[in-house]
Structures are given as C-alpha cells and as structure tokens.
Amino acid sequence: MNHFVSDAVVLTGRTLRHVTRSVDTIITTAITPIAMMLMFVYVFGGAIRTGAASYVDYMLPGILLVTIASGIAYTALRLFTDLQSGIFERFHAMPIARSSVLWAHVLTSLAANLISLVVVVGVALAIGFRSGAGVLGWLAVVGILLLFTLALTWIAVIAGLSAKTAEGGGAFSYPLIFLPFLSSAFVPTRTMPGPVRWFADHQPVTSIVNAIRDLLAQAPVGTGIWTALAWCVGILVVAFGFAMVVYRGKVS
Question: In the chain, what is the greatest distance between 2 CA atoms, to the nearest angstrom?
Fold first, then answer.
C-alpha cells in the first residue's frame, strides 16, 4: 500500500504539472458554466418563477454539475494522450504499481475540477449568490460534489481508454453536460410536460441538485440526500468496475 501511495503521489504531481502548464483547460472548463450562469440569471432569470429564492441561488447547484461535466472531458483527453504516446507502457516497465498510473489521472481530475468549482462559486457570489448554510452544510455540499466528480471521472476513464481519437475521448461529456437541462437544475419540473417531467423527476441530476440546493438554503433535506448519495455511489461503483475491466484489457 505504501508503494502504491508513493507512486500515485509522484504520478499525480506529473499530471498536475501538465494542468498548470495548460491553464487554458481550467479557464475553458470554468468559462462555459460561467457564461451559462450569466445568461440564465440576466436574460432568462426574470421570466422564471422559483419561489422566494433568487434565481442565482436556485440555479447554482445545476451550474456546478455542468462545471464538473465539462471538466471531466479533459480527464479523458489527458488519459487518451498518455495512452497514445506510449507513456503507459514505459511506466508499466518500471517497478511501480500499475494502478497508480490510472489513479494519478483520477486524483488530478478531482483537483482540477475543485479549482473550477471554486472559480464558479466566486463569480456566483459576485453576482448575488448568498447562502446561510453553516460549516457542516458546506462540507456536505463539497462531499456530494466530490463524490459526483469521482463518479463522472471514472466514466471519463472508460472513454479515455476506449476512444479511437482525441475528439471521441471528449465527446462522451456532451450528454452529461446536457443532462442538467432535463432536470430541476434551471426550472421547476412541475412546469414540464408529462413524459419530460417524469424523466426529470427520476434521473440522478435532479436528486443531486435538490439535495445541494436544500443544503445551501438550510432547508430540510429529508430522504432526498440519501437518494442523491445512492445515485453517486451507484454510478461510481458501476463506472469503476467497467473502467478496471477496460484498463486490464489495455495493459495485459
């Protein structure tokens, strides 16, 4: 275990240096959600009724999930690039834990997405977002976001290992970015037509968005938070299992 941890730390440092040398990836990851947030707040926000809460407070949880979905595309791209360059084979020829090469990309994804999330929240605060949540509430929000990031990152790992082209490696993220628009992220689901509302009410993003929104608003979360956590853990377990199968097939 010590061998694995030390190898993973060193290799994570390598991939993090790649991110810091290409700051445009973090900027690009944050710019799209920020542009969406500004558009929804200042263009559509006045026409959308969300109750007593301001619209920026209402829609921020959805924007945070869009930020994560945008960021993991770069995880798949970095993984694909390493795979195609032959660096995986070079690392596997060294006396290091094989899985540490993969975990380095996963940990880098968590760090890079966390930076992007902080930037987006900072902009939200500048345009009027406010939350009365205490330390425990914010810790719960951060925990859900990191768990969601980890779940989507393992999906990105599958895409990065399976893709035939760099474009294909990142294209998988488009449906994930679009999914919040078919949820309660930007409008209440009660305003949607029947079949669309049924899908929105029963897909994972709605429960995750609602849990984060309630935590930030200090509203009772009830059993909704357990539904959100169940979705995150379920996606994580399934994606991790498939990713490891694909990874073993690549390195065997």
Answer: 60
Is 220:214 a contact under the CB 8 Å cutoff? Answer: yes
The DSSP code for 80 is H
Average pLDDT over residues 104-119: 88
Q: Which residue has the tokens 């993969």?
A: 102
**Burial, 153: exposed, middle or buried (Cβ in 10 Å; 0-12, 13-18, 19+)?**
buried
Measured distance CA(106)–CA(109) in Å, rounded: 5
Name residue, tokens 């920026």: 56
Residue from 164, 154, 186 nearest 63 by CA: 186
How many Å apart are CA 147 and CA 105, to the nearest integer?
16
pTM (2 d.p.):
0.89
Tens-digit pLDDT profile for residues 203-225: 999 999 999 999 998 888 888 89
CB contact at 8 A, 151 and 236: yes
Report the chain's C-alpha Rg in angstroms. Answer: 19
